[in-house]
Design goal:
It is a single chain. The protein is mostly helical. About 55% of the residues lie in helices and about 0% in strands. The protein has two helices and no strands.
Length: about 70
């Protein structure tokens, strides 16, 4: 496995963990083909384009619930 494959797998693992965490904290989220945070195109089965967007989405939802 080369450096890029390893980096991709690490990022995918972080994204998967964040998506699981987000899913347990929010209403059921459905994939739309777009990142639910920044609206970039994503694979059909993904909610977010990367872990940073998933975390940002979670933080926004927490702030909205606190209002």
């Amino acid at each position: 496995m080369d450096f890029l494959e390893q980096a991709f797998e690490e990022e995918q693992g972080r994204l998967d963990n964040t998506v699981r965490r987000v899913g347990s904290q929010t209403d059921h989220l459905e994939p739309t083909g777009y990142c639910l945070n920044c609206y970039e195109d994503v694979a059909d089965n993904q909610l977010f384009c990367n872990g940073a967007c998933a975390t940002d989405y979670t933080e926004k939802k927490k702030r909205q619930k606190g209002r």
